[in-house]
Design goal:
Length: 265
Amino acid sequence: MRSFCFTVDVDRDANIPVPGMSQAGSYNRGLGTAPRFRSSGEGIGALTEILDEMGVKATYFAEARTLSNIGAHHLVGREVGIHGFDHEDFTGTFPPGGKKEVLNRACEAVEDLTGKRPRCSRMPYMKISEDVPPILAEIGIRYDSSTYRDMEKEILPYGLAGVVEFPVPVANDASGKKIVGYLWPMHEGKRPPGDYIEMASRMENGTFILATHSWHMSERIDGGYVSKQDAKANENNVREAIAGILDLGYEAETLPDAAERFGVR
Ligand SMILES: [Zn+2]
Protein backbone atom coordinates (compact mmCIF):
# COMPACT_ATOMS: atom_id res chain seq x y z
CA MET A 1 0.00 0.00 0.00
CA ARG A 2 1.29 3.40 -0.96
CA SER A 3 -0.07 6.15 1.22
CA PHE A 4 0.68 9.81 0.45
CA CYS A 5 0.36 12.22 3.36
CA PHE A 6 0.75 15.80 2.19
CA THR A 7 1.43 18.05 5.16
CA VAL A 8 1.47 21.83 5.50
CA ASP A 9 3.21 23.71 8.29
CA VAL A 10 1.15 26.85 8.81
CA ASP A 11 3.95 29.06 10.12
CA ARG A 12 4.71 32.73 10.50
CA ASP A 13 6.42 33.97 7.31
CA ALA A 14 9.97 32.72 6.75
CA ASN A 15 10.30 31.77 10.41
CA ILE A 16 13.64 31.93 12.18
CA PRO A 17 14.67 31.39 15.78
CA VAL A 18 15.36 34.62 17.66
CA PRO A 19 18.22 34.38 20.18
CA GLY A 20 17.05 34.57 23.77
CA MET A 21 13.37 34.13 22.93
CA SER A 22 11.17 31.04 22.76
CA GLN A 23 8.94 32.75 20.16
CA ALA A 24 10.19 32.60 16.58
CA GLY A 25 10.52 35.65 14.38
CA SER A 26 10.44 36.17 10.63
CA TYR A 27 13.45 36.51 8.32
CA ASN A 28 14.67 40.09 8.49
CA ARG A 29 13.82 41.95 5.29
CA GLY A 30 15.03 45.28 6.64
CA LEU A 31 12.37 45.91 9.28
CA GLY A 32 13.63 43.55 11.98
CA THR A 33 12.65 40.03 12.96
CA ALA A 34 9.16 40.68 14.38
CA PRO A 35 6.84 37.91 13.12
CA ARG A 36 5.02 38.58 9.83
CA PHE A 37 1.97 36.68 8.60
CA ARG A 38 1.08 38.05 5.17
CA SER A 39 2.72 35.37 3.02
CA SER A 40 1.36 32.61 5.22
CA GLY A 41 -2.18 33.99 4.91
CA GLU A 42 -1.90 34.26 1.12
CA GLY A 43 -0.14 30.94 0.77
CA ILE A 44 -2.68 28.89 2.72
CA GLY A 45 -5.40 30.15 0.38
CA ALA A 46 -3.38 29.14 -2.68
CA LEU A 47 -2.45 25.74 -1.25
CA THR A 48 -5.93 24.73 -0.10
CA GLU A 49 -7.28 25.69 -3.53
CA ILE A 50 -4.74 23.44 -5.28
CA LEU A 51 -5.34 20.56 -2.87
CA ASP A 52 -9.12 20.82 -3.22
CA GLU A 53 -8.88 20.98 -6.99
CA MET A 54 -6.76 17.80 -6.94
CA GLY A 55 -8.95 16.05 -4.36
CA VAL A 56 -6.01 15.70 -1.96
CA LYS A 57 -6.82 15.52 1.74
CA ALA A 58 -3.87 17.01 3.62
CA THR A 59 -2.85 17.42 7.25
CA TYR A 60 -2.10 20.95 8.49
CA PHE A 61 0.12 21.83 11.43
CA ALA A 62 -0.91 25.28 12.54
CA GLU A 63 1.02 27.49 14.86
CA ALA A 64 -1.64 29.00 17.16
CA ARG A 65 -0.34 32.57 16.85
CA THR A 66 -0.20 32.41 13.07
CA LEU A 67 -3.67 30.91 12.79
CA SER A 68 -5.16 33.62 14.98
CA ASN A 69 -3.50 36.23 12.76
CA ILE A 70 -4.42 34.83 9.35
CA GLY A 71 -7.79 33.39 10.39
CA ALA A 72 -8.92 29.79 10.11
CA HIS A 73 -11.49 30.20 7.32
CA HIS A 74 -9.38 28.19 4.85
CA LEU A 75 -8.90 25.38 7.36
CA VAL A 76 -12.27 24.76 8.96
CA GLY A 77 -13.38 21.19 8.28
CA ARG A 78 -9.82 20.01 7.51
CA GLU A 79 -7.38 17.97 9.61
CA VAL A 80 -5.68 20.74 11.59
CA GLY A 81 -3.00 19.85 14.11
CA ILE A 82 -0.66 22.02 16.18
CA HIS A 83 2.82 23.42 15.52
CA GLY A 84 3.54 25.13 18.84
CA PHE A 85 1.89 28.33 20.01
CA ASP A 86 4.64 30.70 18.90
CA HIS A 87 6.85 28.26 16.99
CA GLU A 88 8.81 27.31 20.09
CA ASP A 89 11.76 24.91 20.10
CA PHE A 90 10.48 22.12 22.36
CA THR A 91 14.00 20.73 22.85
CA GLY A 92 14.84 24.01 24.58
CA THR A 93 14.55 24.95 28.25
CA PHE A 94 11.06 25.39 29.70
CA PRO A 95 9.98 25.85 33.33
CA PRO A 96 8.55 22.68 34.98
CA GLY A 97 5.26 21.83 33.25
CA GLY A 98 5.94 24.54 30.69
CA LYS A 99 5.95 22.37 27.58
CA LYS A 100 2.60 20.85 28.47
CA GLU A 101 1.14 24.26 29.25
CA VAL A 102 2.22 25.75 25.90
CA LEU A 103 1.20 22.71 23.84
CA ASN A 104 -2.18 22.50 25.54
CA ARG A 105 -2.75 26.23 25.07
CA ALA A 106 -1.94 25.76 21.38
CA CYS A 107 -4.55 22.98 21.17
CA GLU A 108 -7.14 25.19 22.85
CA ALA A 109 -6.44 28.10 20.51
CA VAL A 110 -6.66 25.90 17.40
CA GLU A 111 -9.88 24.37 18.73
CA ASP A 112 -11.35 27.84 19.31
CA LEU A 113 -10.46 28.86 15.75
CA THR A 114 -11.43 25.69 13.85
CA GLY A 115 -14.12 24.25 16.12
CA LYS A 116 -12.26 20.96 16.42
CA ARG A 117 -9.78 19.71 19.02
CA PRO A 118 -6.46 18.94 17.24
CA ARG A 119 -5.28 15.34 17.24
CA CYS A 120 -2.11 15.80 15.13
CA SER A 121 1.15 17.66 15.70
CA ARG A 122 4.49 18.56 14.25
CA MET A 123 7.10 20.18 16.45
CA PRO A 124 8.61 23.45 15.16
CA TYR A 125 12.01 23.03 13.44
CA MET A 126 11.28 19.24 13.48
CA LYS A 127 12.88 19.25 16.93
CA ILE A 128 11.40 16.77 19.35
CA SER A 129 12.88 15.44 22.60
CA GLU A 130 12.02 12.22 24.43
CA ASP A 131 9.76 13.92 26.96
CA VAL A 132 7.46 15.40 24.30
CA PRO A 133 5.49 12.38 22.93
CA PRO A 134 4.04 11.44 26.37
CA ILE A 135 3.01 15.09 26.85
CA LEU A 136 1.32 15.06 23.44
CA ALA A 137 -0.56 11.89 24.37
CA GLU A 138 -1.70 13.49 27.65
CA ILE A 139 -3.22 16.48 25.89
CA GLY A 140 -5.05 14.38 23.30
CA ILE A 141 -2.62 14.40 20.38
CA ARG A 142 -2.53 10.95 18.77
CA TYR A 143 -0.54 11.48 15.57
CA ASP A 144 2.79 13.24 15.16
CA SER A 145 5.27 13.90 12.34
CA SER A 146 8.41 15.48 13.80
CA THR A 147 11.14 13.01 12.90
CA TYR A 148 13.21 12.09 9.83
CA ARG A 149 14.03 8.65 8.52
CA ASP A 150 16.17 7.28 5.73
CA MET A 151 14.24 6.31 2.64
CA GLU A 152 13.57 2.61 2.31
CA LYS A 153 11.18 0.37 0.40
CA GLU A 154 8.95 0.36 3.43
CA ILE A 155 8.31 3.27 5.80
CA LEU A 156 5.50 2.57 8.21
CA PRO A 157 4.07 4.82 10.91
CA TYR A 158 4.97 3.46 14.36
CA GLY A 159 3.96 3.84 18.00
CA LEU A 160 6.13 6.30 19.94
CA ALA A 161 5.33 6.69 23.65
CA GLY A 162 1.60 7.13 23.20
CA VAL A 163 1.45 8.73 19.76
CA VAL A 164 1.69 7.36 16.22
CA GLU A 165 4.79 8.79 14.59
CA PHE A 166 5.04 9.49 10.84
CA PRO A 167 8.69 10.09 9.85
CA VAL A 168 9.57 12.44 6.99
CA PRO A 169 11.81 10.65 4.46
CA VAL A 170 15.41 11.59 3.74
CA ALA A 171 17.31 10.17 0.78
CA ASN A 172 20.14 10.78 -1.64
CA ASP A 173 19.09 11.83 -5.12
CA ALA A 174 20.53 10.42 -8.36
CA SER A 175 23.53 12.75 -8.07
CA GLY A 176 24.15 11.72 -4.46
CA LYS A 177 22.82 14.94 -2.96
CA LYS A 178 20.65 14.80 0.14
CA ILE A 179 16.93 15.27 -0.47
CA VAL A 180 14.33 15.61 2.27
CA GLY A 181 10.54 15.27 2.03
CA TYR A 182 10.18 19.04 2.32
CA LEU A 183 9.44 21.10 -0.79
CA TRP A 184 11.64 23.94 0.50
CA PRO A 185 14.30 23.75 -2.28
CA MET A 186 11.59 23.51 -4.94
CA HIS A 187 9.99 26.74 -3.73
CA GLU A 188 13.42 28.36 -3.72
CA GLY A 189 13.96 27.31 -7.35
CA LYS A 190 16.66 24.77 -6.48
CA ARG A 191 14.90 21.47 -7.22
CA PRO A 192 12.34 20.42 -9.85
CA PRO A 193 9.12 18.59 -8.85
CA GLY A 194 10.49 15.43 -10.50
CA ASP A 195 13.06 15.00 -7.71
CA TYR A 196 10.25 14.40 -5.21
CA ILE A 197 8.39 12.06 -7.54
CA GLU A 198 11.60 10.06 -8.01
CA MET A 199 12.01 9.83 -4.22
CA ALA A 200 8.39 8.64 -3.82
CA SER A 201 8.91 6.02 -6.53
CA ARG A 202 11.43 4.23 -4.29
CA MET A 203 8.91 3.41 -1.56
CA GLU A 204 6.69 0.38 -2.07
CA ASN A 205 4.77 0.15 1.18
CA GLY A 206 3.94 2.69 3.86
CA THR A 207 3.41 6.42 4.20
CA PHE A 208 5.28 8.92 2.08
CA ILE A 209 5.21 12.22 3.96
CA LEU A 210 5.72 15.34 1.89
CA ALA A 211 5.81 18.69 3.67
CA THR A 212 5.69 22.36 2.86
CA HIS A 213 5.12 25.73 4.51
CA SER A 214 2.13 27.97 3.76
CA TRP A 215 4.32 31.09 3.43
CA HIS A 216 6.57 29.48 0.84
CA MET A 217 3.86 29.91 -1.82
CA SER A 218 4.31 33.69 -1.68
CA GLU A 219 7.81 34.34 -0.38
CA ARG A 220 11.31 32.98 -0.85
CA ILE A 221 14.08 33.21 1.69
CA ASP A 222 16.33 34.12 -1.21
CA GLY A 223 14.61 37.01 -3.01
CA GLY A 224 11.64 37.93 -0.81
CA TYR A 225 8.04 38.23 -2.01
CA VAL A 226 7.51 36.48 -5.33
CA SER A 227 5.95 38.09 -8.40
CA LYS A 228 2.49 36.98 -9.61
CA GLN A 229 4.21 35.09 -12.40
CA ASP A 230 6.59 33.29 -10.05
CA ALA A 231 3.72 32.49 -7.69
CA LYS A 232 1.91 30.78 -10.59
CA ALA A 233 5.04 28.82 -11.50
CA ASN A 234 5.39 27.80 -7.86
CA GLU A 235 1.76 26.65 -7.79
CA ASN A 236 2.29 24.61 -10.96
CA ASN A 237 5.33 22.94 -9.42
CA VAL A 238 3.26 21.90 -6.41
CA ARG A 239 0.57 20.50 -8.73
CA GLU A 240 3.20 18.65 -10.77
CA ALA A 241 4.85 17.07 -7.71
CA ILE A 242 1.52 15.92 -6.29
CA ALA A 243 0.18 14.65 -9.63
CA GLY A 244 3.38 12.69 -10.25
CA ILE A 245 3.17 11.02 -6.84
CA LEU A 246 -0.51 10.15 -7.32
CA ASP A 247 0.36 8.67 -10.73
CA LEU A 248 2.62 6.19 -8.91
CA GLY A 249 -0.50 4.69 -7.34
CA TYR A 250 -0.32 6.60 -4.08
CA GLU A 251 -3.53 7.32 -2.22
CA ALA A 252 -3.64 10.74 -0.61
CA GLU A 253 -4.89 10.76 2.96
CA THR A 254 -4.53 12.44 6.34
CA LEU A 255 -2.33 11.05 9.12
CA PRO A 256 -5.29 9.66 11.13
CA ASP A 257 -6.70 7.95 8.03
CA ALA A 258 -3.30 6.47 7.18
CA ALA A 259 -2.80 5.22 10.76
CA GLU A 260 -6.18 3.54 10.57
CA ARG A 261 -5.42 1.91 7.21
CA PHE A 262 -2.06 0.57 8.41
CA GLY A 263 -3.60 -0.52 11.71
CA VAL A 264 -1.16 1.45 13.87
CA ARG A 265 -2.26 2.93 17.17
ZN1 LIG B 1 7.56 25.59 11.41
